Amino acid sequence: MPILSASLGLTRYRVVEDVPDSLWREAPKLLKDNAFRDIDQTVDERSFGWCNIDNMLDMDWADSPPEKGQYLCFSLRLDTRRIPPAVFKKHVLIALAQELVQAKAEGKAFLSKDRRREIKDQVMLRLRARSLPIPAVFDAVWSMQSRRILFCSTNSKAKQLFEDLFQTTFGLTLEPLTPFFLAMDMLGEAAASRLENLEPTSFI
């Protein structure tokens, strides 16, 4: 989801570790090293990686750099091939029927379990080869001053993918800024026990 959308869902993060100043100079190369890889000409089910926030097709940051003033801006791109279960089931049934006819012609009465599994795998690969991957792009804005990050999604799977790839790329751990962690950030570690024991108040 673009950061400049009229309305969007955001997840806020903070970086747990201290960020070395050298990382800002290394960031463009680190992003390129973990950039998105296209799967249009493959049968891969999924591909993900970083891309230019200004152009989802730019994985070399040729159009514009990731540095935007005091911010580091980039996007997480995820391409996924989705084969509808009903379509998969239909083509598996067709393939099994054809295989059974051939087997009976050879004097066999049934198909083995391993052969059935092999046919299913072959059908899936054929369908993937005929299916175009569906792209999804999630923008991220990292403040170099506050070290806080805005991620344009609240989806749990997208957030987990972002957190894992961020750690792989930069060697840093992200912590979601939920109300609990915001309170911890303001009050310090000493307030942890008090915050953990808080109970909601009903005003009804």
Question: What Rg do the Cα atoms give?
Answer: 24 Å
Care to count the β-strands?
Answer: 7
| Helix-strand string | EHEEEHHEEHEHH
What is the CA-CA span between the terminal residues?
A: 37 Å
Based on helices, strands and strand pairing, what is the structural class?
alpha+beta
Tally the helices: 6
Task: Report mean pLDDT, rounded to a whole number.
Answer: 90
Q: What can be said about the biggest beta sheet?
A: 7 strands, antiparallel
Spans where pLDDT lies below 50 across 5 or more residues: none
Q: What is the percent of helical residues?
A: 25-40%
- Per the principal axes of the C-alpha atoms, what is the gross shape? elongated
Beta fraction of the residues? 15-25%
What would you say this structure looks like, in words?
The mean pLDDT is 90. Helix 2 crosses helix 3. By secondary structure, the protein is α+β, with helices and mostly antiparallel strands. It is elongated and about 75 Å long. Strands 1, 2, 3, 4, 5, 6 and 7 form a seven-stranded antiparallel beta sheet that branches. The two termini are 37 Å apart. It has helices spanning 22-33, 85-105, 113-130, 156-170, 179-187, 192-196; strands at 11-15, 46-51, 67-68, 71-80, 134-143, 148-151, 174-176.
